[in-house]
Amino acid sequence: EGRMDVAAPLISGLLFCEFDNISGPKVTFQFPENLITADQFRSVSDYIITKPALAGKPTTVLIDDFKLMGFCVCIDDEKYPRNALLFNFCFVFDKEIPYTLLQQYKPLTIKL
Asked: Is the dihedral of CA 55, 57, 62, 63 positive or negative?
């Protein structure tokens, strides 16, 4: 069900981003290294590490040569500073890949 007969597009990279209580949104891990710059991330960080009210929704963001597909997670708990843990694990694709083909990764993005 929901399966497409088109080959899934190749993943160009991976990003793990989180909200740091001192420095704000940041890329904690990326593969390959230096895939995106700090300036590139800053330009889209509001869409990657969203406000808690917007968390829990899949997003795809265009940044220079790439499309980032992620799902911001917000875990509310008093044990965290600011009472929440915000993070996002993003797949990175070439910007030329149509959004319709990227939809194949949407269920996996939500599960991660």
From this structure: positive
